[in-house]
Amino acid sequence: MNEQAAHQLLIHDALRLTGVSLETGLSSKEAAERLVRYGANQVTARADTPGWQRMLRQFTAPLVLVLVAAALVTGLLGEWVDATVILIVVLQVASSFESLAFLRPYLVTEQVNAWFGLLRDPIDTAPLWRSVVVDLCWAVPCIAGAYVVFTRRDVLA
Predict the structure, then answer these.
(1) Residue-wise burial string across 47-85, b where 16 or more C-beta atoms lie within 10 A, e elsewhere
(2) Within a domain: residue 1?
(3) Are residues 152 and 116 in the same domain?
(4) Mean pLDDT per 10-residue run, the chain (157 residues)?
């Protein structure tokens, strides 16, 4: 007889193979014996891969590695603006990976959606305040970096 997976069996074939009656089911004694013989009918959960490991795996794509290397080289050469732009591109590319979905709410491009709360009835401002915090977390380092760049160079010359 051809071995079939259990989920592919017809009902009467599955009942015949397991020795179970459709009308009466298993007796308590038989159920206890099967519990001892086969164990509890439970799915054992696998250990979930931590988010930081999933994130690091996404950065093994050749294009991402080249961009990160380019950002490092331009940063070492003192071209902070170029390095920052390259890292922003890397983050945008990485945000398209499904396993990095947990990062999406913290990207600047997602914060525009917070304004839709003002169009609801009743008005929902909670997403807007969260958006302000996320935007500040992006803006403060960027403005500080821009300040450092502009104070070191004569930008008007």
Answers:
(1) eeeeeeebeeebeeeeebeebeebbeebeeeeeeeebbe
(2) no
(3) yes
(4) 75 86 87 90 78 72 84 91 87 68 72 80 83 87 86 73
